[in-house]
Amino acid sequence: MKRLAVVLACLLAAGPLAAQQPQAPQRRTQSPVQSAPPGAGFARPLPRLDTSPNAADEYDACMHRAEKEPDAAYEDAMGWARTRGGAEPAQHCAASALFYAGHYRQAAEAFTSLANRFRDRRTLLRASLVSQAGRAWLAAEEPEKAMAAFTTAIDVAPETATFRIDRAEAQAAEGKYWEAIDDLNRAVEIDRNRGDAYALRAAAYRQVEALDLAMEDADAAVRLAPKLPEAWLERGILKRMKGDKNGARRDWREVLLLEPEGAAAETARANIERMELGLEPPPPPPARKKAG
């Protein structure tokens, strides 16, 4: 699974995953484990359009190049649209190239414009394009616009787990962890095999200090998506917080095996180094008194 070149986090172990996300209103004792709130930037490639057989090869080549050489892919897509009638596939490739090149606002506007062309037809495709616009807004550090886009996608296709996961990322980026958990609960009801949903929910549970629930989800994420670096990263963070240094080290080394470069790898290395320096995690939070 290719990593998206977004400025936000790799996913849930965020700060572990890229740029810093807005913090929750109240922060607890700092942990020596390097991590930030869960946020966007999940290692998830952009969905592709269904195209006619005549356009499929050119579209696939353009989308592949968009990830590797976005500037060149953008020029290819624009030339395709102008001279060979690429229409929607060419426009989608151009929008994707803008996204991969880091021009997130322009990409969001391009995805939205393309989605509007499908307003009265192919509703699931329209929802997917709106959701892609939301991911671009989230990468542009515009979580409110991202939230609006994801909500529109959910309204169009409420039984699609991906759109719930997308909105949960935006909510987490705003520090709205319980709202994110609500969406992720629905996502796993829709599709219990989504390891990325469990990994993100584990990080959200960690932020609200529900560490046992977080560990259950992290274990599920590793089981369901063993090739997802963020799943191992999050479980390592939780193991370290619970005092299991050896277990944390094993999980973080698994991140490095899966993905030697990138934000998840950087965080795993930083956490291993911090642990080797002998930094200890803070004591667990005091038990909350039961009401009544």
Give your account of this protein's structure.
- This protein has a domain of 42 residues.
- It contains 13 helices and no strands.
- The chain is mainly alpha-helical.
- Helix content is 63%, strand content 0%.
Produce the secondary structure layout.
Blueprint: H1 53-68, H2 70-83, H3 87-100, H4 104-116, H5 123-139, H6 143-156, H7 161-173, H8 177-190, H9 195-207, H10 211-224, H11 229-241, H12 245-258, H13 263-276
Question: Outline, from the CA principal axes?
Answer: globular
Total count of helical runs of at least 4 residues = 13
Q: Low-confidence segments, ≥5 residues, pLDDT <50?
A: 1-32, 34-43, 282-292
Give helix % range. 55-70%
Global Rg? 20 Å
Q: Tell me the span between the first and last alpha carbons.
A: 49 Å
Q: How much is the average pLDDT?
A: 81
Q: State which percent range the strand residues make up.
A: under 5%
Q: What is the number of beta strands? A: 0
Secondary-structure element series: HHHHHHHHHHHHH
Q: Quick one: biggest sheet?
A: none
Oligomer: single chain
Q: Which class of secondary structure composition applies to the elements?
A: mainly alpha
